[in-house]
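If you are new to this repository, start here. Below is one unmodified record pulled from the training split, so you can see the exact layout before writing a loader.
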Amino acid sequence: MKEISSILFVCLGNICRSPLAEGVAWEFIKKYNLSLKVDSAGTSGWHIDEEPCAGSRQVAKRHNFSIDDLRGRRVSVYADEAFDLIIALDSSNYKDLLQLGFEKSKVKKLGDFGLKGADVPDPYAYRDAEGFEKVYQMIAFCVKNLLCMHYPVVESHSNFLDIKQPNS
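And here is the target side for that same chain:
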């Protein structure tokens, strides 16, 4: 598969899952010195200019990176059409992106990269730090698998359990 130059991660509100995916991607970009643009957005306009939610910021910090400087924004086919890949965090986001007019060939689900197409659930369904950790694990696993498909220098995870556990 060819290298890509840009990825947009999309969830509903752009305050929990997609900024976490963006932050994870930035960590791999730094680690492997990739030339890759990443961003995140939401399909709704509910959280424009808001910082990521506390649970996502905390789980990022437990894994030694920060998403504190990210801000919520709404996805736009006009502003975001130039991305090589548009990665939806769940089936609903995927359908919304297609309805907004994004090219079907560019839109993928994050769960297609290691979770057999499963949705990455909204961490608020869990209501605790353990839920945010589970969502982080899913995101980190899939983002790394996505990147290894396009950048041979990135090593793939052979198993979902290979993801590094947080600092205690």
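Two things worth knowing about this chain: The domain at 6-162 is CATH 3.40.50.2300 (Rossmann fold). Residues 93 and 99 are 10 Å apart (CA to CA).
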